[in-house]
Amino acid sequence: MIFFTKLLLAHLIGDFLLQPTRWVVHKEVHKITSKFLYLHISIHFGVTMLLLWDLNQWQWAALIAVSHYFIDLGKLYSNPHFKNKAIPFFVDQLLHIIVLYSCAYHTNLLEHTIALVKEFDWNLITAIVFIGAPSSIIMAKLLGGMSDRIELDHKSLPNAGKYIGIIERLFVLIFIILGRWEAIGLLITAKSVFRFNDLKESNSRKLTEYILIGTLLSFGLAIITGILYMWVS
Fold first, then answer.
1. d(Cα 28, Cα 30) in Å, to the nearest integer?
2. Which spans are transmembrane here (predicted)?
């Protein structure tokens, strides 16, 4: 496990801490001819060797560096074809982690992967999935009749409310699992404070009631999910 942790740490340092934004921009423009692409790969090799602190492990550092080069090239040339730039980024990171995982557990890769999958907490995974998009859709259906009566005089970020709801429900679920029910109250208070100015400026009772119902419904779904998870676990 410590071998994989060192490889992952080297990746995080090389990809995020030691890669300035101007390098990223230069690579996106010049792609395979960018000098920073090769400097970036060299840094990955160096940091990996430094953390492993064993010259006999140089082949793994070299393999990771070479695979990193081709994965990054694939990202650079495919990136313009994606409207959502987050997709190639996360695919790129996932491929890097798969390479690191394969190097760390190459002697028993299949057995370790099977054992890892068997250890998954499927109840927790189901709970996390439910408080995400399914809960957002449920809330949209329940609040659909009310939202048509609300007049908004300001613009917000696309799907901002949806993502805020998902994140807050995730926090609620975590707090329930940790047994920190008081933190849920603090979360509700924090959200109320952030919403106070919007409600004050709008001076709309309908909007206030709509936000209150939506908040209670969101927290209620998360709390019920958390209780059910603790009950079946």
1. 6
2. 36-53, 89-110, 122-143, 170-190, 210-232
Same-domain check for residues 9 and 23: yes
Do residues 135 and 221 touch, judged by C-beta distance below 8 A? yes
| Residue 138, helix vs strand vs coil | helix
| Cα 206 from Cα 203, distance rounded (Å) | 9
3-state secondary structure (DSSP) of residue 77 = helix
The verdict on 95 and 144 lying in the same domain is: no
For residue 189, how many other CB atoms are within 10 A of its CB? Answer: 10
Which three-class secondary structure state does DSSP give residue 199? helix
From first to last of its 233 residues, the chain has per-residue pLDDT tens of 899 999 999 999 999 999 999 999 999 999 999 999 999 999 999 999 999 999 999 999 999 999 999 999 999 999 999 989 899 999 999 999 999 999 999 999 999 999 988 999 999 999 999 999 999 999 988 887 776 666 655 566 677 788 989 999 999 999 999 999 999 999 988 887 776 666 555 555 666 777 788 889 999 999 999 999 999 98
Report how many domains make up the chain.
2
Q: For residue 24, give its domain range.
A: 2-118
